[in-house]
Structures are given as structure tokens and as C-alpha cells.
Amino acid sequence: MQEEFCFSEIAGHFAIDGKYVSCIRYGEGHINDTFKLTLEKDGKEVHYILQRINNRLFTDVEKLMRNIRLVTEFCRKSVIAHGGDPMRECLNVVPTKDGKDYYTDGKNYFRVYIFIEDATTYQIVRDPKDFYESAVAFGSFANLLAGFDASQLYEVLPDFHNTKVRYANFLRAVEKDVCGRKAEVQKEIDWVMAHKDLCGKLVDKIASGEIPLRVTHNDTKLNNVMIDNKTGKGLAVIDLDTVMPGSLCYDFGDSIRFGCNSSAEDEPDLSKVYFRFDLYETYLAGYLSAVGSSITDAERENLPVGAILMTYECGMRFLTDYLEGDVYFRTTRAGQNLDRAHTQFKLVDDMTAAFDKMLAAAKK
């Protein structure tokens, strides 16, 4: 990658000041190519994040970057209003010298962010405190954007959490049975169909206005949170490529889906898979402490619904992909998507059994 581009020339298109020093690959992201750009100014090193945007996946870079600029500018103003540090508590897009949000050479697309110093992202939860701090970060993200009109955002991935549409896609996969796998997974198909009433639980409430339309991050993993190196506290949410209109119950629910699983997402032995209510309480406490009074009663009461729904939706997507020949989710072995579906269905059953406890905790 580094041999393909002249990074000093690319950096020269952005509104940054200093002498080019280096640009090295950075982080563990798989979607975009990410680099740490170093310049020298007044005898000191200044750092930025330079990314080549994956325009094969994000085909409308103009709208993608408009989303990110609108959200980051609003976050910055909110952080300042709350007395925080806008250089560390939110992403800051660096414009090009001609005022655009990105630079393109006609084939490749690049963007630059101010580097958040003295902070780290982690790939795995080292202890429950990390999970708590990720909850604080995503709760703060929702709170900072509480006054933002989410309807102005472009849907980068249309119907991403429209569970009714996901269910319709599943039914088509069952009907077509392109790989002849339907017979072997009839039990799993029946399970999904038996739970179809879940599909409208949030979609319908958003449509009616019972649950407000908000900015959703849609990739609420721990490695999208900057953790302060000294305090261990969650600082800022990063990777805003999938910010879209939706419900905060989606983001909360997806965090619970993967964070409260006792085992790996593709664990074949279901006796090892169970819903960790203790971690649910940990995340819930962090999230509610940060989202504050901006959360509505209807949203609060639907947080456990979001957890069940996101887990059901993800399991249904794994099963759909298995029926279609494993064409969407990357697999490394036969039956992996089916194992993934099984873990999600087991978690849904566990969460359903614990729903009253989950709801009581959310209301407390």
C-alpha cells in the first residue's frame, strides 16, 4: 500500500501545517486503510489519522463524508457546551485546502482526522471496567447528539436495522434454497418464524414516533472507543462510517448482543453459551450514567427489547447467509455461519427468560 502512493503529496492537499515526517500503517481496521501521519511543526511532532476510504463499500463518498462532518461538527459544539475537550472527546475532520471533506485523485479517496493523543483502542475486553467505559462512551455519544436532526443523514446502508426487511430477505432465502440446505436447518427456520413478532418491535415504534429518531453508530464495538491511557476512561467514539438515522435501542442492543455473550460468536458447543446478566448490568449502568436525561421513558423501557431484537436479527442474518451459500459474512470453516446463528438463538432464549429482570434493571 505505501509503495502505491506518495503520502507527502496526499497530505499536502489538506489544511495542515508542518513538514512531512512519516506516514505508517496504524490500527487493526479491516474496512479502510488507516495510517498515522506525522508532521513536524515548531520543533514538535504533530500527528493525524489519514485514511483511504473503501469506496467499493461506501460508493457515495460525498454523502458519507457529509454525514461524518455534520455529526462531528455537532458533537464538537456539544462537547464545548458541556465544558469538555473537543480535541479529545470527539473526532475532528481536517478539511482539504479547498474546503472539502476529502481528497480524491480520481480513483482513491482520502480523509484526515486530528489524532487523539494518549488514548488507545482495545480489541478485547480486558475486564468489566472496559465494557463499562465503552458504555459510557456510547451513552455520551447519544447524549451529545440528542438535539441533532437525524433525518438529515444519508442512509449509508439502507434498511440496515429494519428487521421486517431482514425477515423478508430470510423468507426469500428459504424459498429459493439455492444451496439445498433448507432441509438440514428446518428446525432453525421454524425457530426464526416462531419469533417473527419481534420484527416490528422497534421499527413500528419509530414509525409512530413513540421512539424518537436518533443518530445511531451501528458498530458499537469496544475497538471503536478511545480509552484514555492514564485514567482508563472512555473518551471518544470513532469509526463513524455507518452513522445513520435509527434508535439508540439499536446501538445499545448490539453492544449487549456481543458483549454479554459468555463465549465466542461461533462457539459450536452451546453448553458454553449463555447470556451474562452481570455484564448487562455493567453496561446498562455505564450507558445510563452518560446518556442522562436525554433518554426518553419509551427508549429506556425498550433497551432490553433492543438487546433481544438485535440478537434475533443477527442470528437470522447468519442463517440467511448460510442458506445462500455463505456469501456475505466471511467464514473460515464449513458450518461457521450456522454455528453463529445457533449462538444468537441461544442468547435470545436466555434474554427472553431474563426479560423481566432486564427491564427492572433498566427502569431502576
From TrEMBL:
- Cite the InterPro entries for this sequence: Aminoglycoside_PTrfase, Kinase-like_dom_sf, Pseudomonas-type_ThrB
Q: Which residues form the Aminoglycoside phosphotransferase domain?
A: 25-263
Coiled-coil boundaries = none
SUPFAM superfamilies per the record? Protein kinase-like (PK-like)
Q: What is this protein called?
A: Aminoglycoside phosphotransferase family protein
